């Protein structure tokens, strides 16, 4: 056993920040959590206040340490995991962000993406280099937007005064001292979501940065996912503790689910859904609307790649039923409401709130609720909202099977929505393969903890992660094939109703 007993993970997510204290068995000892404000200045725009995020991170670390009754001396290492793509640009001298963080779901950069595509190659202009299609989702065009639209930002960036980061870099820079010597670093997984990193060399692509008008001096140094980047600052709650793991949230969940071999996959059900399939040490291009992305890189070892199916809206549709319609007062209530009816009553809900991500990549789509009759009640709508998650996941799984040439035989799941047993059974039914939930469903934080702990020798390597993983529950498919096919056909038809909604004068 190591001398220090615990590892802390900071999970800076889309809706909240969490800090979790883990023990050597990978079990949760204590959690701190705080939601931050979602800022919607216009239709399609989504922002966060980076200062609020940094305050919340400090608060939740305090909560978690307090609840575990431990202090910095009991902590071997800190790992950071984060909402990916969300872009923060700040002034290195003042430590202040020059604009709110532009969140991954934000669609304001469509015009920038279109203009870059028009230089030649369309949406696939950079795909062979960075693994991603030109879309509003990724960080690069968001940085460009800030430099184009914030007074004085471009000049300051060209002087070398501005820094860019996803929220991993923002939190790390602040934790390691901010204006007083803060470390400006990111890991390969986060860098692979910017559209600016070469998949093969793991370096910034100067040509793409040039076309996007982004000075290289703004970009963080790219490091592995598991190594010591720096120590928590003097006066910090974790003063002196090494910060030694960074993984984007979805890659962290893949790590926490012990998907270390080619063909291993997990699906995380949070704000959106993200399925990642480990494809080994070389990048595999997708022909079916998936992304090629970094999965993880441990220290000096070879990088491991993944294919990813990203779905923008799943759990956030449940939040929308709660916050925008008032249909429920808390997310778990959706299951109760949905269970009060036997089926969706013919209603299909396609939540294309940010357009459609994988496998369609249709920026012109917007949400639609179709198949409505006088028969449909709010309970059917609750059911249709849950089913939307399962149908979207089926579409991504089909794309994975087509790209990899092997059919997945089971699916490991995690994230907030996997508490919903109605959804889990329907998911198994619609996929036709078993769905498996692990004992520790907080796999995002867990993966970041493992990456940090491995770097300092608290855990010896992947085998510890494999040994600690344990199954909690599995759902077997029980739907007739004909019924599965019928429902999936109707879903696909519903999806087509969302296409082509956004005209030049519609945002
Ligand atoms: N019982 C439930 N049934 C359906 N959805 C649920 C249930 N409980 C939580 N959710 C949904 O799960 C999501 C929260 O999951 P989770 O905490 O994994 O999100 P997250 O994506 O990690 O958050 P973040 O984006 O901040 O990282 C919310 O969108 C919520 O609506
Ligand atoms: Mg999360």
Automatic annotation (TrEMBL):
The record's listing under SUPFAM superfamilies reads: Actin-like ATPase domain
Residues that, per the record, bind sn-glycerol 3-phosphate: 14, 84-85, 137, 249
GO molecular function terms here? glycerol kinase activity
Which keywords does UniProt give here?
ATP-binding, Glycerol metabolism, Kinase, Nucleotide-binding, Transferase
Give the binding site residues for ADP: 14, 18, 271, 315, 416
- InterPro entries reported for this sequence: ATPase_NBD, Carb_kinase_FGGY, Carb_kinase_FGGY_CS, FGGY_C, FGGY_N, Glycerol_kin
Reaction catalysed by this chain?
Answer: glycerol + ATP = sn-glycerol 3-phosphate + ADP + H(+)
Q: Name one Pfam family in it.
A: FGGY_N
**Which family does this protein fall into?**
Belongs to the FGGY kinase family.
Q: Can you name this protein? A: Glycerol kinase
What species was this sequence derived from? Cellulomonas alba
């Amino acid at each position: 056993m190591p001398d220090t007993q615990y590892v802390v993970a900071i999970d800076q997510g889309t809706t909240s920040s969490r800090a979790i204290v883990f023990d050597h068995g990978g079990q949760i000892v204590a959690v701190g959590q705080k939601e931050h404000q979602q800022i919607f200045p216009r239709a399609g725009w989504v922002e966060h206040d980076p200062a609020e995020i940094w305050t919340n991170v400090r608060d939740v670390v305090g909560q978690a340490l307090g609840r575990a009754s431990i202090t910095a001396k009991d902590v071997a290492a800190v790992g950071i995991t984060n909402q990916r793509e969300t872009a923060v640009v700040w002034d290195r001298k003042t430590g202040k962000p020059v604009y709110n963080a532009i969140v991954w779901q934000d669609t304001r950069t469509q015009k920038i993406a279109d203009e870059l595509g028009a230089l030649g190659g369309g949406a696939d202009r950079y795909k062979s280099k960075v693994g991603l299609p030109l879309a509003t989702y990724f960080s690069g065009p968001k940085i460009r937007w800030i430099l184009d639209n914030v007074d004085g930002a471009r000049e300051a960036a060209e002087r070398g005064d501005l820094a860019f980061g996803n929220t991993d870099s923002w939190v790390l820079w602040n934790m390691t001292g901010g204006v007083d010597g803060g470390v400006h670093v990111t890991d390969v997984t986060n860098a692979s979501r910017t559209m600016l990193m070469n998949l093969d060399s793991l370096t910034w692509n100067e040509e793409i940065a040039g076309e996007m008008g982004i000075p290289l001096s703004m970009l963080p140094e790219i490091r592995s996912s598991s190594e010591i980047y720096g120590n928590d600052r003097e006066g910090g709650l974790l003063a002196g503790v090494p910060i030694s793991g960074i993984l984007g949230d979805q890659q962290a969940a893949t790590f926490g689910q012990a998907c270390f071999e080619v063909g291993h996959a997990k699906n995380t059900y949070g704000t959106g859904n993200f399925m990642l399939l480990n494809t080994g040490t070389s990048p595999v291009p997708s022909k079916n609307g998936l992304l090629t992305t970094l999965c993880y890189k441990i220290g000096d070892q070879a990088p491991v790649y993944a294919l990813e199916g990203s779905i923008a809206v799943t759990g956030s549709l449940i939040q929308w039923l709660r916050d925008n319609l008032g249909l429920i007062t808390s997310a778990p209530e959706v299951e109760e409401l949905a269970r009060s009816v036997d089926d969706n009553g013919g209603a299909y809900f396609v939540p294309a709130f940010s357009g459609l991500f994988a496998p369609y990549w249709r920026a012109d789509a917007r949400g639609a609720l179709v198949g409505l009759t006088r028969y449909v009640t709010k309970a059917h709508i609750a059911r249709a909202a849950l089913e939307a998650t399962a149908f979207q996941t089926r579409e991504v799984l089909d794309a994975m099977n087509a790209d990899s040439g092997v059919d997945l035989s089971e699916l490991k799941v995690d994230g907030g929505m996997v508490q919903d047993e109605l959804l889990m059974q329907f998911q198994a039914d619609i996929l036709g393969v078993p769905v498996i939930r692990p004992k520790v469903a907080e796999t995002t934080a867990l993966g970041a903890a493992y990456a940090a702990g491995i770097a300092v020798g608290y855990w010896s390597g992947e085998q510890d992660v494999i040994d600690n993983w344990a199954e909690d529950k599995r759902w077997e498919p029980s739907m007739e094939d004909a019924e599965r096919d019928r429902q999936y056909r109707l879903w696909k038809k519903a999806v087509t109703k969302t296409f082509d909604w956004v005209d030049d004068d519609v945002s």
